[in-house]
Each structure stands twice: as structure tokens, then as C-alpha cells.
Amino acid sequence: MIFTLTALLCLGLSVGPRTPVQAGTLPKPTIWAEPGSVILWWRPVTIWCQGTLEAQEYRLDKEGSVSPWDRQSPLEPGDKAKFSITYMTEQYAGRYHCYYLIRTGWSEHSDPLELVMTGAYNKPSLSALPSPVVTSGGNVTLQCDSWWGSDRFILTKEGEHQPSWILDSQPDLDGQSQALFTVGPMTPNHRWIFRCYGCNRNYPQVWSKPSDPVELMVSGPSGDPTSPPTEHNLMAGDSEDQLLHTESGAQSGLTWYLKVLIGVLVAFVLLLSLLLLLLLPIRHRHQGKGKMSGAADPQPKDGGLQISSSPAVDAQEETLSDAAVKDTQPEEGVQLHHQAAISEAPQDVTYAQLNHLTLRREMTSPSSQSEEPPAEPSVYAALAIH
Questions:
Q1: CA separation for the pair 363, 199 (Å, rounded)
Q2: Which of 38, 97, 246, 294 is the residue whose CA sits 20 to 30 A from 260?
Q3: According to the UniProt record, where is the region Disordered (predicted)?
């Protein structure tokens, strides 16, 4: 009997130092995610695991994956390690545990960390029934709807890291899936801002995009949907007023610049249109003048000699034209020599070829200009130049 007790005591002493988990000497580490446990698709996230200063190695396990999922050496001063995920995708969504190693053995596993990825589906719609204004101490129903057939909905409250409510969906009258969340009792000293997500129960850590936020207004004793004027609310109200003022100023400045840009563009278009309206009549006017000048001064096909140097020469040309008109049937090649006077000294004689066509055009009426006259013989006249 004494031998058995001695053997058991020795066995306990030998096993105790090698299994510190059973001895309870190593506390379990703490695990958390930054910037949070609900991460939008393709955004970075970091998982931290904090243990003791004696830790030599940290390991991270993901449920459903090969263990260990990742391992890291501790950072200075040695009580924690960092596990980085550069881009959040569906494969990183899940439940994680971490633990660490010291000289005597491994620690316990940490509490689970639910790492959720959002943005996998279209956002659902969230509404308050019957109204977002609720009396103090009362309850309100929030309805979350989805048209793509979500079979589970998650309701979150702003400021809380964990999901507030999770419900399976129910079909509504329109064939969509919905869930009704009862929230309350409501107190006026808190802000109640909610969003909802949809997911598939087979992938509980892969959520849809968040719905538009719904803020519930809690009415005070007077029935007005306002919070009591505590110091915290006054400071929050001042901060919100400053933020709203800054945002409104930025929006008004952007609106002013847009109006100026639109005004400049409109003025430019109007000036361009006015310039085109001014140039088009001038162009048509020039084209009309060109056509009128071309019709008024046609070039004759048969070139005749035109002399318009002086009145004496014009009278002499008229005499010669009259003589040429009177001779209606001259023989071809006949030359008429006209001597102005017989002088003692010899005079230079200049021959001018007169075209019957030109002479007749001058004597006929303008209505006959369009007719094509027959070919006429040429008449030569001698002009004496003194």
C-alpha cells in the first residue's frame, strides 16, 4: 500500500511540470482583431494574440483548417504576436483561437474570435415599425428584408463589436425573405443606430453589405423625441454641430464651384452660338455678291477690241461701228481702209479688228443676250493716230 502511494506521488511530480495546462500555471491568451472583427471585403485586418512575457512562440488556429493555421515569434517585449491578413476574402472568414508556448509547455487556447467578411451580397433594407420614434421604456420592431433569398439576418447596434441579434429569415407576402427584430426597452440616454446584414447559414461568417442605418428617437417625458440635456449629450451635440457645419460648408463651397463652372460653360456656348449667327449672314452675303458680279459681267466667248481712252476715240469708234453695221454683207477677208485725211507727211496706220458679234451685241436689246448668235466675219478698220 505504501509502495503504491509512493509510486503515484512520483508519477504526479513527474507529470505536473510537463503539463502546465493541467496544473493551471499558464493563463489563456487574449485574442482580438484590428480594426475590428467585421471587415469589408478586400480590406486589411490584423489578429493579435497576447500572452505572457515568457512566451517563445505564438500559434493561431482556424476552425476547419489544418492546425496550426499560422505561427509567429513574439514582438517586443514578448507578450504578444501579430498575424496579418493583407486582403480580407471568404477564405479568411471563420472562427480563430490562439495559444502560446513557454519553456514548460503550451498554454490554453484563447476564447474564439469570429472574423466576419462583409460585402459578399447586396445590402438588405431595414425599417422601423410602426415608426422610428419610440416612447421611453417602450419597444420597437425592426424589419430587415432581402430580395436575394437570405436565410439568416444579423442586426448590429452602433458602438457594439459583437452582433446584437441573429434570426433565421421568414418569407413575406412578396416572396422576399425577412426577419423581425424586437428591440427594447428604449432609454433616452443612449443613441440607437442599427444596421442589418444577410447571410447563408452554411457560411455564417460571410455577410452581405450593410443596410442603410436606422436611428431610433426616444421621446422624453414631454413626448418630444429628444435626449435629456446631460453634459455628455451637450458635448456630443456640439461636436455633431461642428461636424455638420464643416460638412455643410464643404458642400456649399463645392456647390458654388459647380455653379461657377456651369455658368462659364453656358456663357461660352452662348458666345460661340452668337459668333456663328453673325458669321453665317456675312458669308451668304459675300456668296450672293460673287454670283451677282459674275452674272453682270460675263466674259464674251469671242474677244473683240474695246477702246475707251477718250471721247474722240469713242466717237471715232461709233462712226466705224455705224459703217460696219450698214455693210451687212461684206465679203470674207475684205479690209476697209479708212483715211482720216491726206497729209503731206506719211502717217502711221493702225489696224483694229472689229467683231460683228460684239458690234451687234451693243446694238441689240438685252433680251437677246441669251440667244447664241451665228458666226460673223470680222471687219478691219484703219485708225489714224496723230
A1: 106
A2: 246
A3: 214-236, 288-336, 362-386
Any idea how long the chain is? 386
Cell numbers at 124, concatenated: 438588405
Asked if pLDDT for residue 348 goes beyond 60, the answer is: no
The residues facing 206 across adjacent strands are 117
Extract the C-alpha cell encoding 12: 504526479
d(CA 72, CA 76): 12
pLDDT digit string, tens, across residues 29-51: 999 999 999 999 999 999 999 99
Whose grid coordinates read 420592431?
A: 141
Give tens-digit pLDDT for 267-304.
889 888 888 888 887 776 666 665 555 544 444 444 44
d(CA 158, CA 162): 10
CA-based nearest residue to 338, from 356, 350, 326, 355: 350
Q: Count the Cβ atoms, other than its own, within 10 Å of residue 150.
A: 27
Model confidence band, residue 367 (pLDDT cutoffs 50, 70, 90)? very low
Task: Tell which residue, 335, 377, 337, 373, has the closest CA to residue 356.
Answer: 377
